[in-house]
Amino acid sequence: MVKRCFNMVKRKRVxxxxxxxxxxxxxxxxxxxxxxxMVGFDRAKxxxxxxxxxxxxxRGKMKKRIWMRIGDVVLVAPWDFQPERGDILHRYGMDExxxxxxHGYLKGLEDILPIEDLLRREEE
Length: 124
What we know:
5 strands, alpha+beta, 27% strand, 2 helices
């Protein structure tokens, strides 16, 4: 018989299931962007699809749960009172990127992202 210590907690192992969720589509006041630089203090410089480089902050809900890296495609909500700043609302995964590229939401980011490669991989 195995004796359990107080720090030996039996944990359930959860297997990751790939669910095809509907991707978050940008609203009228939101833009898609690519992270160019991590500034620190939960902030990043993001090149948006409208051509503006914004200093964006990562929402508190996402700070510890979703890790951001340079080159990630994110959804940005620009501030009304300071258009050169904004909030990062969502980080897109590969499946969501393919969906956005197929439906034309990545129009201003052709020079940064390999959109043709995303569409080609979907056909294969």
